[in-house]
Amino acid sequence: MQDGDKNIEADFLGDAEPLQARRTPAESDRRGISFRWFGGSIMTGLASVSLMGGALYTALDGRENLAIPAQAYEKEDPENGTGAARIEKSGRPYLTAALPETPEPGKVFMVPTVTREGDQDVVKLKPFMHLDLPLAAVPRREVDYPRFDPLAIFSENGKAEPIAYTAEQIYGADVEGEISLKIEPYPLGDPNISVVSRQTSEDIESIVRNTAPTLDVGATALTSVPYFDAARFSAEDSSVLSTPGLTITAENVSVISRVDPEAYPGMRYLERKAAVKSELPIALVLQGEGLGESEAIEFANAIAANLASENFLGGDRLMMSFLAMPEKDGGGQSLARISVYRDGRHMVSVVRKKSGALAYAAPPDTAPGETGSKGPKPPVLLARNKLPNIYNAVYRAALNEGLDVETVNRLIRIIAFDVDFRTQITTQDRLELFLSLEEGQNALTENAEILYAGVTLGDITRQYYRFGDPETGAVDYYDETGKSAKQFLLRQPVPNGVFRSPYGMRRHPITRVRKMHWGVDWSAPRGTPILAAGNGIVEKAGWAGGSGKRTILRHANGYETYYLHQTSFAKGIKPGVRVRQGQVIGYVGSTGLSTGPHLHYEVHVNNNRVNPMKIKLPRGKVFRGEELVAFENERNRIDALLEERRLAGAQFAGN
Known about the structure:
By secondary structure, the protein is an alpha+beta fold. The strands form 6 sheets. Strands 18, 21, 22, 23, 24, 25, 26, 27, 28 and 29 form a 10-stranded antiparallel β-sheet that branches. Strands 3, 4, 5, 6, 14, 15, 16 and 17 form an 8-stranded antiparallel β-sheet that branches. It has helices at about 35-60, 150-155, 200-210, 280-290, 295-305, 390-400, 405-415, 625-655; strands spanning about 1-5, 5, 110-115, 120-135, 170, 180, 270-275, 280, 310, 315-325, 335-340, 345-350, 360, 430-435, 450-455, 460-470, 475-480, 500, 505, 515, 520-525, 530, 535-545, 550-555, 560-570, 580, 585-590, 600-605, 610. The protein contains 8 helices and 29 strands.
């Protein structure tokens, strides 16, 4: 493009060819671009955006996030997977249209727990999680975890044993919220309190039979008597119910008559099942189901009073019965009954009585999704030639369910005394866990505690229950009989050692004299840590002739352990020092009469030498008396919850 004697070259965006014509003040081409005008337009736009943004920021006083009313109705579109906000004026925007499948029973559920605070027992709902995992399942994702190190499993982890500062236990009854219980002795000496024996069932029956003939159908007569079994008097008992229409009803029980279909031809009940997608106000959800505002608020108040919340939670299941009136009576429908389920558990049922008032009722015979459900798909299992060992299988299964590495480390230490982690699993092996979550959480965190662990390997199931020692407060794990999961002594103080020489007669490898070998030998590289076989006190630590550097530990109940041929002692190991099971006390060597680095390990019981590999080792702690009763009560409460979750899972899988 030329302008007078000056040539101006320009690059153009688009498919139009460059212009080569001379431009005069009277001539112009629409495809031409004025850089001065173009730059000015850009600068003007940027300035406008800046000014508008500044004005908006000032007007909002620096607030960056605005609460849009439509966000309360945001719903994920199942067609495209987007989360765009969508408001529907009709239909059911808050619930799924139906329940095509029964959902898996919630892994997280609320359980009442009781804690002693001062002179009162406080009962509150806390979240718990139940997991039942096949160890042979194909992992959903790859996970990172520590490589197998037997020394790390049995050695100290640098943390003190947890102490149960609060005696929190599972409460043996259902509650809807938080309550406080204070138990005081019954004031038998109070003159205003009668301690006369209660009436017998025969006395109560006599009162009822004598009063019945005088009762009038048109009036309600009450007689104050202690609780009794109203079923003793049936409708066929003419001696009592001599007056037509007279019934005997237990206290706090509402009787709702069925509507006679012949009196209202064309009237019918409509059943509807639904699931709440996210946490929303109860009244808002019911309006989305077609209820009028006043009716929705009426039912919402009744439901909220029982749930102790004005909101439904995501995943809540609803079972509703609507009464559809015939056309001659104006048509339409009204809610006759609604039942709320949470995590597969019935929470509340509200019905409308004939009088029009609302009342609580027992759960219906059929829960949401009990019919027509296909159940969950069974997990895909690994091929037999790809089954991992127990150590890898436990880590993969637990980490894939959301447990953190430290929690799985604790699980490994719990079962370490009974399980050989290097053994390959089978397709039937399973891991079951019952965990307490942090208050207010519905997912696993690093503070989750393992209350129960069950490991099924082959045809043997080992169970471990978390319990605080009532005497010391120390928290540990015990089997179903109240015996500690920890063994009194380790059979192999060098966990990564190789078994070389058994207990018994043999020819000494150096002297070539046939003599008794009073221990067992574990071969390991020089400098390999040696662990204390159990809690005890160092009785000796020094040179012992042909035994080389030797350590003797004295344990409870007449047990002693000997560790020979060490290359050196661990720091601080000397007579009189108290050591803990798994603590490093020395290092493998070949001192004394030895042909190579190994540990010679002996066990003495009441000064008698025994075979460390065949002696039946006791457990570390065994509950008896009142301690055993307290443990059994907690174990039974955990077992009852586990059985409830197993039945729910089995019922769900069978549908």
